[in-house]
Amino acid sequence: MRIEAFRNLQHEAVVWRHYLHENPELDYRMHNTARFVIEKLASFGIDRIETGIAEAGIVALIQGEDGNQPTIGLRADMDALPILEVPNKRWSSNIPGKMHACGHDGHIAMLLGAAKYLANTRNFKGSVALIFQPAEEVGLPSGGLRMVQEGIMDRFGIHQVFGMHNLPGIEVGKFGICDGPIMASQDDFDIVVKGRGGHAAAPHQAIDPVVIAAHIIVGLQTLVSRNTNPMEPLAISVTKLKAAEAYNVIPDQVEMGGTVRTLVPGLREFAERQILATAQGIARGFGADLDLKHRRAVPVTFNDTNGTNLAIKAASNLVGPASVDVKIKPRMGSEDFAYMLEARPGAFIFLGNGATAGLHHPAYDFNDEALPFGIGYWVNLVEIVLAA
Ligand code: NI
């Protein structure tokens, strides 16, 4: 079905989106947002609504013509960010310091629009599980992981799962996707370099952990440039550094921290192993000791081939194949929908948000013109995957 079939849903979706934008909520504390979503879902006559999953998460089930057929999951994230919004619109945030700066307000409105359409038409076999997820933007454990851990895939019999994120810089009405990795994994590390402190004027009596930390920072950069295949993306960034507070003190220890991003699952293991080996080797070479904590955070968001092809077909039905970039370059950011794609095959797609400010920018806004495209994508996807 072409985009024209979904234009009449835009007006209502804009009203929902603006309400959500004015009332942003963070992490798991999304009770007003969840209440709003539940009210709307109930008003569409949806068969089953389960609430309180991962605190504020919701899964709603719409049954098609034959309930024994497969179920597909469609996921929208719901949380806002702790950002002070540039108050440049009628529907700007009512809550200073909180803002929908990643467009999750639009993601909710699009999944609600699709829910309304699908609950009315039910032109599919099997069932659709609408997954409204809290806490995408937080550290571990994030909402996607917790919803998987709380068993939604088994409980709702979900066979395949699909996600969507708006992307500034792509025209409204266009989509971008690729087979394989589409968003990077994220792992974080903390290092403590343990030297021996002393007076800055007598460095020979100390083991200076500041100089050792500097060597480690440079050493870690060679893991990317010298030890991995240049065709395989890996970013290692040291972002935190804490030494002494005074000009004349060599501290006992230096604390540093950073992050690892990659699109290649095997490079996560490589980085975990080699960051330790490199940092330890450098520290020992200078007579210091070292503690390292490596935390696996978000896995690679991995589109399987079948899911990717179904997503491409759905988007192409809606806007024509010329408006679907099927080989978009993967992003090095991470996305906790990756946990759902670890649990079930499927695909994650980008939806054009036009020439707006970037994601997480205080002047960003979800583009209301993109709403019918997102709604139409979901509906086409359901009617393709669960063809009646
Ligand atoms: Ni986001």
Question: How does this structure look, described?
Answer:
The chain is of the alpha/beta class and 388 residues long. It has 2 domains: 3-182 and 301-385, 3-Layer(aba) Sandwich (Aminopeptidase), CATH 3.40.630; 185-298, Alpha-Beta Plaits (2-Layer Sandwich), CATH 3.30.70.360. Helices cover 34% and strands 25% of the residues. It is built from 10 helices and 16 strands. The strands form 4 sheets. The chain has an 8-stranded mixed β-sheet, with helices on both faces. Strands 10-12-8-13 form a 4-stranded antiparallel β-sheet, with helices on one face. Helix 1 runs antiparallel to helix 3, helix 3 crosses helix 10 and helix 6 packs antiparallel against helix 7 (265-285). The longest helix is centred in the C-terminal third of the chain and has 21 residues, at 265-285. The chain starts with 9 loop residues before the first helix and ends with a helix. The structure holds nickel (II) ion. Residues 102, 104, 136, 165 line the site of nickel (II) ion (NI).
How would the blueprint of this fold be written?
Layout lengths: L9 H13 L8 H13 L4 E6 L3 E7 L7 E7 L26 H18 L5 E7 L9 H7 L2 H4 L2 E10 L7 E2 L3 E4 L1 E10 L3 E2 L9 H19 L6 E9 L6 E2 L2 E10 L2 H21 L3 E10 L2 E3 L1 H15 L4 E2 L12 H6 L2 E7 L18 H15 L3
Bound molecules: nickel (II) ion (NI).
Pick out its properties.
388 residues; Alpha-Beta Plaits; 25% strand; 10 helices; 2 domains; alpha/beta; Aminopeptidase; binds nickel (II) ion; four-stranded antiparallel sheet
Topology-level CATH name of the largest domain: Aminopeptidase
Q: How do the helices and strands follow one another from N- to C-terminus? A: HHEEEHEHHEEEEEHEEEHEEHEHEH
CATH superfamily of the largest domain: Zn peptidases
- What helical percentage do the residues reach? 25-40%
Beta-sheet strand percentage? 25-35%
Class per helix and strand makeup:
alpha/beta
Strand line-up across the major sheet: 1-2-4-3-5-16-6-15
Discrete helix count: 10
CATH class term of the largest domain: Alpha Beta
Q: Which regions contain 5 or more consecutive residues with pLDDT less than 50? A: none
> What is the average of the pLDDT values?
96
- Taken together, the total number of domains comes to 2
Ligands: nickel (II) ion
